[in-house]
Structure formats: structure tokens, C-alpha cells
Amino acid sequence: FRAVIFDMGGVVLPSPFPMTKEYELNKKIPAGTIWKTIKDYGENGAWPKLEVGEINAEEFGTIFSEECSKTACEKIEVHDFLEYLEIGMKNPITEVLDAVNCLRQEGIKTALLTNNWIQGDGKSLLPFSRNHFDVIVESAVVGMHKPKFPIYNYCLSKLNVKPEEAIFLDDMQPNLVAAKSLGIHTIKVDDVHIAINELEHQLNVPLTSATKGTRPVRKEMQFDVASLTAYLNEKLNMGFTHVPEIREFSHGQSNPTYLIDYGPNAKKMVLRKKPPGKLLPSAHAIEREYRVYNVFNRIMSALGQHGVKVPPVLDLCDDPLVIGTPFYLMELGNIYKDPSLPGMNPQSRQQVYKAMVDTLCSIHKVDINKAGLTDYGKHGNYVERQVNIWTKQYKRSETHSIPSMDRLMTWLPQHLPTNETTTVVHGDIRIDNFIFRRDTPEVVATLDWELSTLGDPISDLAYSCIPHFLPVNFPIISGLKGVNMNELGIPTHEKILEMYCEKMNLHQIDNFDFYMAFSFFRVASILQGVFKRSTQGQASSDKASATGKLAEHMSDIGWSFASKEGFKLFNKMNPTIGGGATRKYSSRAGKAKCGSVFVRSWCLAVYTRNKLKSLFSALPQSTQELHSKLECFMTEHVLPLEETFSRYYSSDKKWTPHPELENLKAKAKSEGLWNLFLPNKEYGAGLTNVEYAYLCEIMGSCLYAPEVFNCSAPDTGNMEVLSEFGTEEQKQKWLLPLLNGEIRSCFAMTEPKVASSDATNIESSIVEDGDNLVLNGRKWWTSGAMDPRMKIIIFMGKNDPNAIKHQQQSMVLVPASTPGVKVMRPLTVFGFDDAPVGHGEVAFDDVIVPKENMILKAGAGFQIAQARLGPGRIHHCMRLIGSAERSLQLMKQRVKSRVAFGRALSTRDTILRDIATSRIEIDQCRLLVLKTAHMMDVAGNKAAAKEIAMIKVSVPTTVSRVIDRAMQSFGAAGLSGDFPMAGFYVWSRALRIADGPDAVHEAAIAKREL
Ligand SMILES: Cc1cc2nc3c(=O)[nH]c(=O)nc-3n(C[C@H](O)[C@H](O)[C@H](O)COP(=O)(O)OP(=O)(O)OC[C@H]3O[C@@H](n4cnc5c(N)ncnc54)[C@H](O)[C@@H]3O)c2cc1C
């Protein structure tokens, strides 16, 4: 063979098949619609036209949406399908590019033969350097596609080889059949690793490069190579005169790891050393890690039947003079870094995970007495000791307050396991700590024993499940959350538990959530240590700084497990135990004794079985996952830009949205963090108000965040109006671009001349003129009017001043560009102009719009305003809780680090009282908001009117107080633009008037009470 031809999707890039299924699931499109459409339409459909470049991505979106709609017999919108695939397919499978490299080094020609498409930016889809291949044939560029013969012949001619001299790898059978009939040898790719193996056999050429996963050694990680060479020659009799090539492994945070390569005929070695600089005690115990290897080597030779596999250690050098720190050397093997095992088929993935569990069991089954390991660690109370160690470690490296970490440090010691067993524990079980054989998914060695000791084996098991709860692409530890595990063949964490219990002969593990909470706590503590070191410039990875910030995310997940475990324990508790008398009344919405004075406000007899989900852990798993995804997104992408945005929106460019905002929006959208507010499943996330409350709170922690997720006012309210009351045409024209985040909108009701808290006062007019409506009036406080992206206004005016009081008003859609619409000036709140959204004064002078722009019907203005304001008010309150929570968090950090009159502020009684009061008030507000959200969910907005009014009054006032205390604790800085509190304060104060003044709502509450 002289040439190898590779397909792209499913061979060089991840396969689009599982992504398509995911996409259908996310978008609630009937399963299988997309591939059925492609198949049914065949050569006449949009897909082949896209592949040969006849239509572009945008045209494809339109035609393909129609085709899919016909297939599914319902309206289907797939405009962003290609974008979704492009994101999922952006990372090439390194093993394949590695193989391509090796082939070229052996003088074998390589080609990429792909059916691809031209993306929105006009470039073809090819997310890696063209230099990888000798020849690249793209269907969208050459205007031909597989499985038609001409494109194969074209590729062969470019390679200048005969069909029988080439091997072709593809995952699609029809493409392979066509190639075979031309005389090309074919390999079907179901599992990239197996396919590469087959290719290796066919060609008899090694196809993995040793430098995989490595990079040149970073400057701060360099050491004296000459000294190492001299040492190796002396100690290991290397017998080479030349200096080896040294590269650094890119993964791994704690101990820097290097590849030592003497060239083709020598064993490749791995060197692990301590990082430079002063370290926390007990971390980076290289000598200990080495000792364990030796012990295990001993065990292995003595007790081969245990089958624990560790890599043979070649040497330990504890002389710091050789390369600056102690180090050890071992042989190189094959490691999978990504737990989703890209490029493997489901069966192999299953086997890899099974091999991991089996190896874990073999470690836990080692007889410590027979192996002479009784002194390898203390016996019993392992978890308790570990909790102490990691608590101390965390406290030593604490840089700021992490509330969930504080809670875990209290909770874990109170819930320790009572029936621990003692075995050898590894302490860092994850897929990338195993070396696998290349041809079969068999473990040949287990790495990273530096945390091993005698201890509780379930802690290892729980630790191995951490990736199951982290998002894909999570820094440092890639996650599996959101991945379709069933489809990929990856066992769920429950399945892993089951496999383990079966092999270890255990019935079940009752308190597994405790172990998960403990595992996340430990990772959080480790990451905090990495972060602390990064602030001192000693981290062993340049990603360390970003990693440390993830400590908070990890501890939050830990806390969610603790809550779950706590809830389980609570449910099991006998109500009479612990002095707990049976409760006379309930704080849950449910059937209650009507008539009792205590229960009246909770008496929601019509919705008996719906219990209020006041515990986060009671939310559906999918919402909990959205929650952690959102939090992660905020930490990684939004909060780092907060200061930039704040500075920008105070500059003279402020009325033009910051360019980075659109990128953030695109990213959030691609991650499914989009239109979360909209309960309507057709257009939005379809969450209940209670579910959204938890998410909205996160968004409220930064003033710039809601827009990133297309969840900001006034667009949210306007989108709800359009989705509920708009005609099909109005939806197409205005709702869809709003849902896509392409345009913005505003709501013009309040007028300068009349008290508009009473909207029956408004004087703007709507007059019919043939097929048109003519609008006149002056509005102010029209939020969003200043924004250059604002394209549509919902205008409220009177169309019939003689009708009954609440039917005189109507709402009309007015495109912002309509002649006669004039934005006069931006208004300010305490001097804040809220750029680029702004609150404008707007003149409407003889504005003419077609009659079809009326929303719902003439006279329905009040009805629509009421429907709009309910959800709008609760969203404001949910966000305010996020602002309060963040203010309190900042306050706690500040008072711990600020010293006045010789003492930290955090020791002052007044500060302690302020913190306590704020905590109480925030939690009170949150519960009232959740109750209101719950009532809206189960009984409707109308039934919840009193509760909506109550939170509308209570939350802004209370939150203003919380923020005020936080500002006070910061001194002058609290009032400045350097921190977000001043902005939060202005907004919370404004909300006592916006959405209707408090007095109006108080009157409504009192009336209902009376
Ligand atoms: C930041 C911000 C954004 C806004 N965004 C928008 C928007 O996008 N679109 C829009 O149309 N409007 C918007 N508004 C306007 C807002 O809805 C009105 O300001 C509000 O309804 C009050 O109307 P008003 O200012 O005319 O006060 P008025 O109606 O004149 O009331 C003044 C005061 O009278 C008292 N009062 C009124 N009624 C009663 C009562 N029944 N009992 C006792 N006392 C009473 C209260 O103290 C009240 O504050 C916004 C306002 C702000 C501050």
C-alpha cells in the first residue's frame, strides 16, 4: 500500500450520529427525524446539496427545516443544526492525527476525503491544520461527494496512486462499498482505536507517536538536562552518548511529568518530579509514591493472584542536586485522558470501564496481612482522618470564603460512616490513572499512588465517579455530564456501583451520597491548594490559576450530595425521635386543614399532590444539571468579564454593546443555556417557575449576566406576551429574532404627564385609519429604548376612551424604525443610565402601523399587561436574591481580610449581626419567592396574585438592606464602581417603583387580607 485515505466525521473527528440524537433530544424533535429526512429525500434533498456546495449553511437551514417538518408532520426548526455539529466536531481525535503523522514519517501518502460543508463564515468545515494530510478533498469545494465514484477517482489521482495501492477508512457503509467496488482496500471504523490497530497490522508500521499528549517543556519547568543525562548513564547504564529529547506531559497538575526519549531504539521513559518551590506539607510525596510502587512490586511478585498492576519503576532519585528536586522514572504506556473515550465503539468503552472497576476491586481485595502491608497506614476512621487532613489543607490555602466548603466542613464530620472496612486504597482513581494495553481494553498498570494508604474502599469508588457529575470540557477533569452514556456504552455511576458491589460481594452502599460529597470536598480542597500556589507563582500548570477557581464549583457539587444524603436521612427519621413533636401545620403547599388560621395562606386544596420543592435536591436531575452548568458558565465566562463590562459601560462607547457580549451569547446558546425563563416548551426551556427560580438567582449575581442567556428584561416579558398572545405572523417576525437573541425590544406604557402606576390614566392614543392604526403620545422610562439592537416596541395606548375602564387600552407592536418614533433622551436612576439598554423618553408622533400589529385584540391592553407583569415581577425578585447573595458573599470575604483598630472586621459584633441578619433575610425572601413560584406553577398566575404582590414589596426592600450592609462593610469602596454592590443597590431601589410602586401592591395585599 502506498496511500491511506481518511474520512473526516466519525474518523478524524467525533461522529455526528450521537450529536444528531442529542440535538433532537435537546430541541424536542421526534427522534430519528433528521436522518430519516436525509435518507428519504436522497439526492434531491438539502443535505447532498449542502455537501456539494450548491447551497450555503443559511439556505440549508431554511430548506432542511421544511423537509424535516414534512417528515415529522409538525413544525420543525433546525437552523442551528450545523452550528451544533460544528461545535461538537471541533476537536480532532488525536490518536488519528497521530497515526497520520506516523504514516507520513514512513513515506506513506495520506489523504482526507470528506463530505463536508461551507460554514456560515464562508469557510469549509475543517477544524484542524491542512498540513496534516498530503491531499485534502472536500466535497463542498470540489462539487462532488461520496459515495459517487468521481470523488474517489479524483482523490486517487491527486495522490497519484492506483486503487489497489490505497486503504480507505470510513464509518459509513455505502461509502466503503463504493470504494471497494473501485478496488480500494477498506476498513470500517466503528471504533477508531481498533481501526488504527487494523491499519497498523495491514501496513506493518507503528502508528502511535510517543510524544502524544506532550509539549515542549515550559520555561519554569525546565531542569538541567546534562545533569540528568550523566545521572542516567551512570545509574541505568543507558549507553547513549547523545542527550535525550525531553518533553512535558500536558495533563496532570500536581507533579510535573516528562517524557524522556532517546530515539527509536530505546525504551521511552516517564519522569515524575516534585514541582519547584515551597510546598504544603504532605502534598507531592514523590518518595512515598515511589515506595508504594516498590511495595506493590513486591506484592505482585509475592502475591501474583491479587493481580494489582503497577508500572515497573526504574529508579528513584532523592538527591535534589541532580535536577533540583527528587524524581522517579518508569516506563511509558497508553493512557486515555478523556472519560468519554472518543473514537471508541460502545462495546470497547464498556470494557474499559469494566476493566477499571475490576482493577479497583483487585486493589481492594489485596490481603493486607499477607502482603505485609499492615503498617502501610492507620487502621479504621479513615474518612474522619481524611476529612481532618483536607479541612486543614483547605484552611491553609484558603484565599476567600467558599460558603459550600464551610458548610461541608461542618456537615461531613457529623455524618461519618459508622461501618468502615479497611483495605488498601489508591486515593486518586480515575480513568487517566490507568495504563491500558493498545489492542485490548485491559489494564496493564495503575498510576499515581501518591495518595494511597490503608482506608475505606468506598471512598475510592466514589472518587472514580466524579467525572459523571462534571460537564464535558470541564477544565482539568473532563466530565461526562450531558453525554448520552447509554448510547456511548459508558456505565452510569449507578451501574458502576452495581458492578463493584457484585464483584466485592456487597449488598448495597446506603450512604454513597456521603462518599460523593466527601470526594468533591477533597477535590475542592486540592484545587484550592493549586490555586493558592498559582497565586504564588509555583503551580505546575499554567491552567492552575483557572483551576483553583473551580474549587468553589466542586464544593458546591459536594454540598448538593450532602443535601441529598441529609434529605434521605431526614426522610428515614422517626418524627418522634429527637424531641420532634408532630407538626401542627405545614410549610408545604398541599392539602391542609382549611379554616385553621395558620394554614390559610398555604391552603391550596386544589393542587393536593404538588409539594413545594424548597430543597434544591428535590428538583429534577435535569434542572440540577442545568444549574451546575449555568454556575460553571458564570464562573468561567461571565464573571471574569464583569470588570471589563463595567469599565466599558462607563466609557463614551457605552451605548454600543460590548463586542464580547455576542460571543458569550453564542456560547451560552450552544450549551443549551438559553431562553431558560420561558415556560413554553415550544419556544423556551419549559421549566417551571420553581425550577427557573434557582437558575435566575445565579444570573442575578451579575448585572450583565441575564442578557448572556437571553433572559433579561424587558425582552423576557415581551417574549412571553408574543408567545402567548401573538399571531403566527407576529411570532415569525418578532418573537423568533428575540428568541434567537438577534434583536432587543421595549415596553412603552408609563407616561410623564399622568400617574402611570394607575395605567387606566394613560393618554396615548390609538386611532384606526382604514387598514392602519395611528399612534400618538409621549412615553418615558421605556427600558431598552436606547439600545441600538432594539427593533420592536410594545406600545400601550387607548383605542376607546368610552369603553369600560379596563377595556379602553390596547397594545400594539411598533417597529423602532417607524417614522414618528423618536427617542428623546436617556433617563438616569441616581445618575446610573444602565447603558446600553437605557431607559428612554420616547415620542410617538403620528406613528402609522398596519392593523395586524394589534396584539390579541382591541381593548385587551390590561389583560396583556397583567399577564406580562406576573412572571416579570417574580423574575426580578429571583434575580435580586442572587444580587443579595453575592453582596453577602463579597462582604464576608472583605470583613475577613480587612483590619481596623487592630482587629479583623469579622470579629466586630456589629458586623457579625449584620451578616446574620442578611443571611436570615435572604433565606426568608428566597422561601417566599419559591412559594410564590410554586403557586404560579400549580394554581396559575392569577391565584398567586397576592403572593406576587407580597414578594414584589418584600424582596426589593429587604435586598436593598442586605446590599446596604455589604456596601457599608466595604467603606467607600462599597459605593464605587469597583464592586457590583452600588449597581445592585440602584436596581433594587428602582424596583420599589418599577413594576408598580410598593404602595399599590400593599393596598392590593391588604384588600385581600381584609
Ligand atoms: C428603572 C425603571 C425602569 C422602568 N421601566 C419601565 C418600562 O420599561 N416601561 C414602562 O412603561 N415603565 C417603566 N418604568 C416606570 C414604572 O413602571 C413607573 O414609574 C411606575 O409604574 C410608577 O409610575 P409613576 O412613576 O408615574 O409614579 P406615580 O404613578 O405618579 O406614583 C407616585 C407615587 O405615588 C404613590 N402612590 C401611587 N399609587 C398609590 C396608591 N394606590 N396608594 C398609595 N400611594 C400611591 C406611590 O408612593 C408612588 O411611588 C420604569 C421605572 C423605573 C424606575
UniProtKB/TrEMBL annotation:
Protein name, entry field: Acyl-CoA dehydrogenase family member 10
Domain Acyl-CoA dehydrogenase/oxidase N-terminal: start-end pairs: 624-742
Lineage: Eukaryota, Metazoa, Chordata, Tunicata, Ascidiacea
Domain Acyl-CoA oxidase/dehydrogenase middle: from-to ranges: 746-847
Family to which the UniProt record says this protein belongs: Belongs to the acyl-CoA dehydrogenase family.
GO molecular function: flavin adenine dinucleotide binding; oxidoreductase activity, acting on the CH-CH group of donors
Presence of keyword Oxidoreductase: yes
SUPFAM superfamilies linked to this entry: Acyl-CoA dehydrogenase C-terminal domain-like (SSF47203), Acyl-CoA dehydrogenase NM domain-like (SSF56645), HAD-like (SSF56784), Protein kinase-like (PK-like) (SSF56112)
The keyword Lyase is assigned to this record: no
UniProt KW keywords: Acetylation, FAD, Flavoprotein, Oxidoreductase
InterPro entries xrefs: ACAD10-like, ACAD10_11_N, Acyl-CoA_Oxase/DH_mid-dom, Acyl-CoA_Oxase/DH_mid-dom_sf, AcylCo_DH-like_C, AcylCo_DH/oxidase_C, AcylCoA_DH/ox_N, AcylCoA_DH/ox_N_sf
Cofactor: FAD
A Pfam family that the UniProt record links to this protein: APH
Residue span, Acyl-CoA dehydrogenase/oxidase C-terminal domain: 859-1008
Domain Aminoglycoside phosphotransferase, residue spans: 245-465
Organism per entry: Ciona savignyi (Pacific transparent sea squirt)
